[in-house]
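Input/output pair, single chain:
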Amino acid sequence: HNNTMSTTHIDHIAHIDDPVSPQEIKEYHKTTSYTHPIPPPQPNNDFSNVVVVLNLPQVSQAKFDKLNTFLSKLLQKKTEVNTKENIIDIYMPFDKDGKKSQGFAIVELASAALAKNVIHVLHEYAFDKKHTLTLRPFTDVEKYATVNESKYHQEFPDFEKKPQLKNWLKNLFDDQFAVKVKDRVEILWNDLAKEGDRVHKRENWTEGHIGWSPNGSYLITEHEQGFALWGGDDFSKQARFKHLKPEIIEFSPQESYVVTVNDAQKDNVIIWDVRLETPSTKFTVPHEESNGLPLIRWSPDEKHFARQKKGSNEIRIYSTQTFLLNKKKIKVNNLQDFQFCPTMVNGTAVIGYWALDRDSGNANIGLMSFPKAQILGRPISIVGVKRVQMLWSKDGAFLAMKVDREKKIREGTSFIKVDATDFFVFRTTSKEFPVDHVEVTEEVIDFAWEPQGNILAVITKHKADVNGISIKNDVTLHTFGEKVKTDVILELTDADKVLWSPRGRHAILIYTDAKTAQPIFFWDMHQKEQLGFGEHYKMNNAYWDPTGRYLATIVSSHHVVDGDHGFIMWSFTGRILYKRRFDGFQEFKWRPRPPSILSKKQVDKVKKTLPSKSKHYLLEEQQKAKEQMSEQLRDLIQKWRDYINWKQQLEEQYNEEKEERDELLGVDEDAMWVEASVHVL
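Output:
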């Protein structure tokens, strides 16, 4: 020992060879003293090498060893832990009954450096299909456990009940729309009897455009300092967001977040949490990149969003849990663009992508899961490609890839290059993700998917004449059943755009370059027959209502200076229902409806039982119409009574003033009128 010993201790050492009894050892300790006593052992308070692993499966005692072994092997295989010796301990607590683990583990490693590496690699790691790991340093647990709550005590205001944002859906018959007229914004019901029933009106409500959130919960108004959201029965302000002069305002699919973009030099892209009214994250994106829409791509479940830097081969992945950049990026050589499927496919987000080597013209198109980047089905390789355009169907069942390319054809004894267009259609409803190929021989003007169906409508140039000139168009329907069926439904038409009803089946064909009267063709695409025809002078846009029963065509003062500004409301068969004219009319926006909460089976069941229930709804609609007619009749009767009362008051006043008039005229007024009448006769 290094301690200084007493004389008694030296004497004992002198007789070290003598046998020592246990009693002598006890006496020795009693009589021996030390200048420096041995200190008691101290606890190790350094937990930098300890990690908390959250979101583990909850297992019984029988499966505990298997889970423990799996986690140990995962640490050794995926991180720098490498060997079992670097794992000092894995502790998984059980519930009070000792029957089930509590879904987390405390892992002690050999060093703090290994702990940092484990957190970096395994945070947000997909442990299995249902569990994604979350890792935290144990020091965080200690830090939050020892927070002085009195230091951070906060007085919360009394609960304030928020307005109900979905009350407008209780109206079973009508939908709402918003119009902007000069500095005035109006919200109206599409009430046919009243030709638009005003709900709300406000002057100077917006300094820019108006719009609706994707599910119709909020009205959006633009301002110099940012934008505001309005909702509820009285359209009160629900939130405001400060981002100077926003050029882009775009919601996530479920309205949880909103993206704004302006032309600032720093932090020009902000993702806001709508409920909290706070920024979730900020980006600085060069102005030339922010010109394209959308800048941020959202997964349908909003768990992730992604973006691609201009000229980059990488898809950057972000989680909405942390809003941090995922260390794993999706890399695709010569990547040009990608788009999310609007719906989840078997619980997984899916993206369609296309890549093009512009020097060689070789392109690859395909599908992959997100964020795992697993290739789905068979990617397609194409040569001589110029450009690719992607279009998902609204229900996510189909992805159409329109490929413009050059191909060689034989002419005499040689080959020449000609322009060609191909449609490659990926089906997501089958496990194999099969691809259909449709070749189009003429130039494609427009194409659009039926929103709730399997028809792709394509407008092409009509086959050129002997002089190589084609001034008319053809409309073709490609139906993707077990086999692809192609039907040309209209030839030699001026129509250059197709607009489907949101419910499918019905569509309109319009000619966007018309200088005077804009023709509108109303079609039943399933029966392949034209239902009606109409014209709207200098029309510049058309919008279907969410139910697909009504169509609004507009003439905006933004686009037409000397037109008849306002809108016309049509039935889906092409009958004019009513017209509204506004001096200075600028914008028209239908209020969207949220997606149905019913499953496909439930929707099919409703469709089957609809004929038996339609009488009930028809009676309700007739009763409503009768009440509206009664109300109008009551208004007319009241106006007539008001008129009679007003007339009687004038007659009484006239009679009361007779003597005064006779005095001023110097003659009896009645006698004068009689004499004048006799003279005329």
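The CA atoms of residues 627 and 633 lie 10 Å apart. The radius of gyration is 39 Å.
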